[in-house]
Write a structure and sequence with these properties.
This protein has 156 residues and is of the alpha+beta class. It is built from three helices and five strands. Helix 2 crosses helix 3.
């Protein structure tokens, strides 16, 4: 049965994807007490990166913003894989985003707005979070963006 959060995803025309399998030795998400921490989520769609390269060079800032939203959707799937029901989210506490950036690209916060806006649209006030936006030289598989989230769960 679909909960409120998944109904909101459907209303937005989004489908929660399968959890992206790890690229190395780690778990997609781990629960510790009332918190779930995701591993870095790439913008994988059906097991593939739709685009690769550096933002500000091969990838436009607008494309990267859309990819950041995909990363956030993948992060929600990772959270669900641990807790079973996204309605258990009390709030998104923190989002950390990495943007593979061309040397002169400085608009990392705008790229990460894609993830923040998706979380807000899906979770409302529960999606409002603290955030870090970091420009990096390269990401795994030459992905343009990588996002990790930390969520607090409602008491059981």
């Amino acid at each position: 049965m679909s909960g409120v959060v998944e109904a909101k995803l459907a209303e937005l025309g989004l489908t929660l994807p399968e959890v992206v399998p790890p690229l190395a030795t780690y778990q997609p998400a781990v629960r510790s007490g009332a918190y779930v921490y995701t591993a870095g989520q790439l913008p994988m769609v059906q097991g593939k990166l739709p685009v690769t390269g550096k933002v500000g060079a091969e990838v436009s800032a607008e494309q990267a913003k859309e990819l950041a939203a995909t990363c956030a959707l993948n992060a929600l799937a990772a959270v669900k894989s641990v807790v079973g029901d996204l309605d258990r989210i009390a709030r998104v506490v923190k989002v950390v985003g990495f943007v593979a950036s061309a040397p002169d690209f400085t608009a990392q916060p705008g790229v990460l707005n894609g993830a923040s806006e998706l979380l807000g649209a899906v979770l409302g006030d529960k999606g409002v979070h603290a955030r870090s936006a970091v420009g990096v030289a390269v990401l795994p598989l030459d992905a343009p963006v990588e996002i990790e989230i930390q969520v607090e769960l409602l008491p059981s």
